[in-house]
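In practice, a research group might receive sequence data for several interacting partners and want a quick structural hypothesis before committing to experiments. The following worked case mirrors that situation: the sequences arrive first, and a predicted assembly follows.
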Amino acid sequence: MSQPEQSPARPTIKAVAKHAQVSYQTVSNALNAPERLRPDTLARVLRAVEDLGYRPTQAARNLRLQTTRLIGFRSTRSGGRDIGAIEDRFLYALTSAARDRGYGVILFAADGDEDEIAMFEDLVSRGAVDGFVLFGSHRHDARTAWLAERDVPFVSFGRPWEKTAFEYSWLDVDGHAGTLAATRHLAAAGHRRVAFLGWPEGSEVGDDRYAGYLAAAEELGLPTRGLTVRGLNGIGDGTKLAAALLDKAHPPTAFVCVSDAMAVGVMHAVEHRGLAVGRDVAVIGFDDSPLATVVQPALSSVRQPLESIARQCVDLVLERIDDPRSAVTTSVVEPTVIARGSSDPTHPAPDDEA
Amino acid sequence: MSQPEQSPARPTIKAVAKHAQVSYQTVSNALNAPERLRPDTLARVLRAVEDLGYRPTQAARNLRLQTTRLIGFRSTRSGGRDIGAIEDRFLYALTSAARDRGYGVILFAADGDEDEIAMFEDLVSRGAVDGFVLFGSHRHDARTAWLAERDVPFVSFGRPWEKTAFEYSWLDVDGHAGTLAATRHLAAAGHRRVAFLGWPEGSEVGDDRYAGYLAAAEELGLPTRGLTVRGLNGIGDGTKLAAALLDKAHPPTAFVCVSDAMAVGVMHAVEHRGLAVGRDVAVIGFDDSPLATVVQPALSSVRQPLESIARQCVDLVLERIDDPRSAVTTSVVEPTVIARGSSDPTHPAPDDEA
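A structural hypothesis for the assembly, expressed as tokens:
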């Protein structure tokens, strides 16, 4: 029997393979799927493992403890196409936070809740993940019920919008507080006719943001009649909705928008009329997406603390994985108004920021 | 022994669990990790499986065949923060294409090549993936060598920029052809003084795009002296570089840019001078990122066919997984000039497009 190699570095699978004169894959099989090897080959590899004092990584040990160290996450429809979307940034933050805890993310495409549940079933039945992080929530959400019934560890970024028969851990951003702060911000700059551009009624997140605007208007005694409009998300929709408001006899001087895309649309409508965004008309968006710093002047927006939310999502789902009976945690996070040139003409231009 | 339930639907794990009066997780264990169950429990579950005629999904069968049906992919640094980046769109396309072939994507964070290799080692040693898709390539790329040496199936979106001792499958976009076509497009509209805004020398992709511009200038007899500048990627950098060129005695009337972010920066510099983009100065970017349709006028750009590339990446890596000795495939894809208002003032405004 040969002596262990005198190497200061920890022996690797590669060194074991060389020592046993087998391929890398054969060593991997010996450690993970020994039944695939001929008994004499297996014996030879295991002898090399012992000779070299090879120790599998933490991950490999975890595998034998039947944990996958993987969290499932549905791939977002946005995929960088919807420029105002926060999903890509959240996924990146989630992957980084998971890595810091020794976890990877299984990303899967799914088209709607039912399809996402089919993927849950697939991944769970294969034992391919330890738990899931959900993105977004809405009424009649069948996903949380499916996971809760089966005691699959999960956490949701997005609150339950109705009473559920079961409890689960979730985090959410307080949209109401966000538009309340945005409206106060515009009123503090002297605006009285503040419009709201929202999503169609029935969108839980959109209605929450609308309610925050209404609460601020009531608190500050601002008019809202004829100043609130709703439309689909998108720059073009924002332009059309804002144009209709600006055509009125008493047009608004400021706009609170349910999203950054809508707000950029408002900016286009204002510029089409030869007015200056920031100086003549103030605009504030929601999400502080990358869009906000692309336009000129830069767009004020309500920022969601995605990095910290992603980190907490990982912490919470790992808690459930470690102990499926651990207490449920729920948390509503306050967003922050980021003031830029679109609502504050004294703010430096975006080029000076970069 | 009870009769199978008369259900038109395929029996599910849940039905098996109910029938055997055990939890969902216990059924999953019986199928995937039978050694974790007490023999009598295992026997009860397997009887229920037989009674109901339960058939594991394709995925569960694959698990037993020792394939993971997972492809590894490094999470991009962009994460929606770099608004002109194509990584998010590629990842989405990759996940969709993988799903169509019954595969999921394991996304992992990594900070540089060495760290990415550490993640390869971790995932391969755990038997957690069947192969990898790499994004981006550069000289002295240690990742491809690591994977090739170990016969780990992979494909690279990004060509080898030097001769390697081993062969592997890759796809890439022809950046040279892209800027060549972009420069011809501007010259066809009558521009003679066409500037190029590039990345610092030594970036393989940047140098390739620069060479395409030079080739077009030579072909068309356009001047290039004093018309090419280089800087880091970003809107602010684009603005500063373009401002310096526009201050010259003989400023350019058109700009070919190495990225959309640089091109948006050029648009800002042009507007600062009270000139109209599209009418007075033409601008074209590269990548056709979401940025291109946010600005006004919309930005002309060179489009990479990411969806088709992602699909081919999945096809090629699955080929290697099925047969590690299968032939290596390499392919350079031609990008396409997408003309919009920034280089063609007759083009409809972005609002009309939406």
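Before designing any experiment, note the following. Chain A has three domains: 13-56, 70-172+306-334, 175-304+338-353. Chain A touches chain B through 82 residues (CB under 8 Å).
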